[in-house]
Write a structure and sequence with these properties.
With about 220 residues, the chain is of the alpha+beta class. It has 10 helices and 8 strands.
């Protein structure tokens, strides 16, 4: 991950140079360790790290405790609720986990000190923790993110331009994560606006909406006659 995020150099003592990442490595490390320690390994989804020009999203394939949030664990002194005790104990003994239940508190403290914005997203079967990248990176996709339209509409427009686009390509263009693009694709497929032709690797997306609109236009023209 180190080579995929931006670093700046700061002068230290004498001629020493200190390299500082745009997102504190200890915060990234805590969320990644948390993701593996509390994942639900019985499900079909897996741990994921999505890096875009605007954010770093770490997906944990394990539902968050009901009615609780990462902020509550950081501020309300809620005790750890381990899903995988053996894994957590192993990480503790290897010193990858310093103290049970302290991970989110450390992440928020470090990010607050560094001026890094964070967010989280709960979903069925898992949750994502998001680190927002600096404003310089955000400008890369400013022309896309400023569009006042939902993600699924942007995905539909991209597929109209090129039905061969991959999830990764669209995520890069939009400045969103692959998981966000996949949710948009699921919505469009569920509403019958697109359908997959061929395999996941060698296929393409057929935009049904355009065909439906064209057919409706021909039918309306015949009625006018």
């Amino acid at each position: 991950m180190k080579e995929h995020i931006n670093w700046r150099v700061q002068n230290g003592n004498g001629t020493a140079r200190i390299e500082i990442p745009e997102i504190p490595m200890e915060a990234l490390r805590e969320i990644i360790v948390n993701s593996f320690a509390h994942a639900d390994y019985r499900g079909l989804s897996e741990n994921e790290i999505d890096i875009t020009p605007t954010q770093v999203e770490i997906y944990n394939p394990g539902e968050f405790p009901q009615d609780l949030t990462p902020v509550m664990f950081a501020e309300d002194r809620i005790k750890s609720m381990p899903r995988n005790k053996v894994i957590l104990n192993t990480l503790y003994k290897s010193k990858d986990v310093e103290m049970f239940g302290s991970g989110f508190k450390k992440v928020y403290a470090v990010c607050r000190q560094s001026g890094i914005r964070t967010d989280f997203h709960m979903s069925y079967g898992g949750f994502s923790f998001i680190f927002f990248r600096d404003s310089v990176a955000e400008n890369v996709t400013k022309n896309v993110t400023e569009r006042k339209m939902p993600s699924h509409q942007i995905v539909l427009n991209l597929l109209k331009e090129n039905p061969m686009r991959s999830r990764e390509e669209m995520a890069g263009i939009m400045g969103k994560t692959v998981r966000t693009v996949q949710r948009a694709l699921d919505k469009l497929s569920g509403e019958g606006m697109i359908r997959r032709i061929g395999t996941a690797r060698a296929g393409y997306w057929e935009v049904i909406q355009d065909q439906r609109n064209a057919a409706e236009g021909i039918h309306a023209g015949m009625e006018d006659e």
